[in-house]
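Chain A, query sequence.
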Amino acid sequence: NINEQIFFEFIDPCKDLDGFHPVNVGLTVICLPYFVSSTPFVIVELLKRYHFETSGKHCVVIGRSNIVGRPMSILMSQKSINATVTVAHSRTKNLEELCATADILIAALGAPGFIKEHMVKEGAVVIDVGTTRVPSTETKSGFRLKGDVVFDEVAPKCSYITPVPGGVGPMTRVSLLSNTLLAAKENING
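Chain A, predicted structure.
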């Protein structure tokens, strides 16, 4: 029953390493980012570093959260990326068919195993942002992380797919550390 946006607004935008504050989101929208939301930022970096062609490609972002989905759609539609972006969510009609049209599918729904083989276009790039703890008898802790994509089923169809765990998560932590260094540098020089 707590509105998280109220808490984001209490954070100094210059110390908002996650890029959630309305000032940082607004700067991202007009292509003048200070701190970009970490997970969307690393997904864009991943696409750039692996030289995936994004210009004119259809990108479907499943999830509309202020942490991943919305900022992801903003970044993917900017001139440096030039993707045509569709934001989908749990209430989107014909979601399965829509996903199957994506050249780049970014799953940030938080629904473990939601994306199945028939929902993915042949040769698509699939980026799984979902990290849900599910019970497991195979681990000492009694749980394991599971992504939004059924990896073993979808992977043979993709040109590229990120695993969970070990995909976007570790890169997000690196982005947060990078933002920490940027904030410290600005604080020292500022």
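The CA atoms of residues 131 and 147 lie 5 Å apart. Helices lie at 4-10, 22-29, 38-49, 69-77, 95-99, 151-154, 168-189.
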